[in-house]
Amino acid sequence: MSQRIQRAYQITKTFLSYGLDEIIPARWLPWSIRVGRYALFWMPNRHKQKSAGARLRLALESLGPVWVKFGQMLSTRRDLLPPDIANELAKLQDKVKAFPGEKAQQLIEKALDLKSIDDAFDDFSVHPLASASIAQVHTARLKRGDDAGADVVIKVIRPDIRTSIDADLRLMETLAGVLARHLPDGRRLKPKEVVKEYRKTLLDELDLLREAGNAIQLKRNFDDSPLLYIPTVYSDYSRHNVMVMERIDGIPVSDVDTLMAMGVNMKILAERGVEVFFTQVFRDSFFHADMHPGNIFVSRDNPDNPSYLGIDFGIVGTLNRDDKRYLAENFLAFFNRDYRKVAELHVDSGWVPAHINVEDFESAIRTVCEPIFNKPLADISFGHVLVNLFNTARRFEMEVQPQLVLLQKTLLYVEGLGRTLYPQLDLWKTAKPFLEKWMQEQLGWRAVVRSVKENAPFWAEKLPEMPTLLYDYLKHQQPHAQAQQQLLAELRQAQKLQTRQTWWATITGGLIISTTLLFVANQPDWLVALVAATTAVSGVVAWRRTN
Predict the structure, then answer these.
(1) Tell me, which GO biological process terms does this entry list (predicted)?
(2) In the predicted model, is pLDDT for residue 102 greater than 90?
(3) Would the annotation count 328 as a binding residue?
(4) Per the annotation, does 131 bind a ligand?
(5) 8 A C-beta contact, residue 180 and residue 191
(6) What is the pLDDT of residue 547?
């Protein structure tokens, strides 16, 4: 408990010393929080000269890896943040001090049940090759088995990081609950949902067996492909906190000077980056969702026909069939400038409420998208377009689709990659043929043939059972039909009874009114008595009909 209180104090002090309380307008905060801020007068804003976005970025960096990762995720949610803050958060980098290599060696030996690291590896480097917020990487060479002599990297999760992550996540959830209750825009910003999404993403990254499975899946998807190479994972040496995979020798994709010096065809390289993205999303429905420059390399082989090398598969995204189809149709409609189709697709998919005026939505989309066509990537900002689209979507009550958040983040990475490698790249012309071919395969005769082939084993299995199933259906159909006829007869009888009850109730009510009017008008007593008697008889009949 004392550790949690101490951590909460440290986080509070960091937030206040960077003036993060000033980012939220005072009128949004309850009086208790404002009073508490004045009570902590010894924690003034020490960075008043910096912008709000810069202060937020620096505060997250000082709080450590969990908060850095959170800031990186927030930077992709441009629907929730002002552009200046989102741009600052996009600058966050994982520059984390390495933990001792001897400790990493102990963790590897314990995970793989080795008496010594030399039992399985030669040339193990105690000095890490790279260090990030979640794990660090050491080099070695396999010592035994069919792959003996292979150069490998060993990824090790930081010791005790789960404890600190759980503590920080609990504090984040508490803070998110406060913001959701007290911020006027808390419902739309969904702070609790954002933290929940972050928890899942972060905990997935802590499981290296999951990452190993992701890598194996991606490698199978791009087996023998000239577009992307995924290193081999040595599953026998992989555990929840340790993963061993092939060491690759590539050029960082951000090292443009070296790529140019080697004579790499930058146009083909940029176009293949777009093709890799759309292939993963629309062909495989399984895409690498952390494609920042630190995780992408370029092969040194064949510069005229370059290919990519990928690493770090802790975060992947998937799409179901409906989302994938709607996305493909949206992209094609955008490329064809059919904004009416885009608006209708958003309504049909449920992304925008049905009561929204489609004509107005179409006009708003046209206003955002039309200026960017027929321009090279150097002259447009896809991030800026996304911001404008999010503002438009918010105006038309479109809620963010959680399953598309990782896709949005990956698309921004692809844009940055293309802008760096070949600014003249025409993103639309590169992607359109691929999407048109994919749509033909999904909706044309090829889709019918593929569906028949996929379902043929199931039909072949069920075909011998068809005569028995048909006999059972016909056998049970007659009792069901008789039961339905009986129910219909009872319903008709009930309707007739209800009609008679209503009729007698109406007559009785009319007679009561008539009796009252005759009595008030001082009509002859015999007439009043006659109508009253008739009313009584009618009431008795109505009561008996009802019961």
Answers:
(1) regulation of ubiquinone biosynthetic process; ubiquinone biosynthetic process
(2) yes
(3) no
(4) yes
(5) yes
(6) 61
Cα dihedral angle (248, 251, 254, 258), rounded to 10 degrees? 170
Residues whose CB falls within 8 Å of the CB of residue 42, separated by 6 or more in sequence, listed in order? none
Q: Can you tell me which residue has the tokens 């293309």?
A: 418
Furthest C-alpha separation in the chain: 122
pLDDT tens figures, 222-233: 998 999 999 999
Query: Computed from CA positions of residues 533, 535, 536, 538, in that sequence, does the dihedral angle turn out positive or negative?
Result: positive
| 135 known member of a binding site | yes
- Structure confidence by residue, pLDDT tens digits, 279-294: 898 888 899 988 877 7
The reply to whether 3 sits in an annotated binding site is no
Q: Give the dihedral of Cα atoms 130, 136, 139, 142; nearest 10 deg.
A: -150
Q: Identify the residue with better confidence: 93 or 181.
A: 181
CB 146 within 8 A of CB 238: no
Q: Which residues pair with 308 in a beta bridge?
A: 228, 298
Residue 377 marked ligand-binding: no
Give tens-digit pLDDT for 370-385.
777 666 655 666 555 6
Find out whether 132 is annotated in a ligand binding site: yes
**Amino acid found at 90:** A
Question: CA-CA distance, 362 to 338, in Å (whole number)?
Answer: 9
Token pair recorded at residue 434: 């691929």
Residue 314 tokens read as 């802790």
Catalytic residue among 290, 338, 426, 525: 290
Active site residue 79: no
pLDDT at 214 over 80: yes
Give me 353's structure tokens: 């409420």
- To the nearest 10°, report the CA torsion of 202, 203, 209, 210: -70
